[in-house]
Amino acid sequence: MVKNKNLRRCFTALLLCVLTVAGTVLPSGQAFASSYQSEINAINQTLDRLKEEQQAIKDSIAGAKTQKAQEEQKRGYIDQEIKLTKDEITILLEKIDLMEQHIQDKKTDISGKEKEIEANYNVFLQRMRVMYMYDDTTTLGLLLGADSYARFLTNADNMARVAEHDRLLLQALSSQLLALEEAKSELDASLAGLEEDRSSYEEKNHTLNGQLQAANLRIQSLADMESEFLADLEKNQANQAAMQKELEDIYARIQWDQSAYVGGEMAWPVPNFTRISSEYGWRFNNKDFHTGIDIAGPSASGQGIYGAQVACANGGTVKYTNWTYSPGSGYGIYIIVDHGGGVSTLYGHLSNILVKVGDSVSRGQPIGEVGSTGWSTGPHLHFEVRVNGGTHTNPRPYIFR
To answer: Residue 85 class from Cβ within 10 Å (0-12 exposed, 13-18 middle, 19+ buried)?
Structure first.
């Protein structure tokens, strides 16, 4: 027991000496930096950008001069806010998965370091036992008792090699101990960060649920649309004309399939939601021509339509997707699908697109999600059928309902 205590005291003292004398060659904290840190930094930068975009929306809403203007801004930005929250949740999940893997790797690394230290410490103990059993006079005797000068030099060289071995052993142990402490400190920080990110994830889910509920409480109202349209008739008519001109240009650029129309009855584009809030044709005292039908919620079960999946009306090819839009103007996020024979469908005011240009799609396949992007008083799907490469027509004869 005494020997063991003496050995540990000796070990501690020697380590302090090595740390003082050879400290410049010990690994720095940078050497133990996690390989995943660059990925974490990139994720954090993305989260910061999303927060800046959210703040910009809040500032825009707060900048509205009247309560009515603020409500219109809120309605116009609800899709963007929901998308930003969903993006945050996705990024946070990615970060949590990455951190959990890092924590597991770090625990494995710490376990390995502890085993290495234990092995080197056992070697050190063996050296200490030898030193304890043979004092310095015996060591001195090895030199002075040499029977020749050559033996003296040989003994001196061997002892120098042993001393160097001991120094390197102690230096390795001290480096390993420092690495272990840094690894444990990093693990503690990662565990604390993981807990914080999990709390943030729960908070964002709560926020998203509130946003979705708020979106679904907004019912697409034809009366509200008419009131808004007539309130600034000249401006809104100009916007509608510009939107139709933009669509005509898009349809003119599309390379349409030369095959025959796939035929058959088109599927209803929003399963379980049957209310049509605006029909095809003239509306608003013949001041606006509606080029499709608007399908709104809630469903018979009371479910809100926001986020509901949009089904492709018929088989075909995705020819165009639009993600760029201004709140309160146009069709917002929309998709155009070619069904052959000059027949196409358009799906407007989406909150999300699930396909990309060039994809082959089948009848009833989910291609998007209902939103309220563009000019909309509430979440709904604007559905169009166009023939002869771009001429709008009444969708009613094409769809089953």
So the answer is: buried
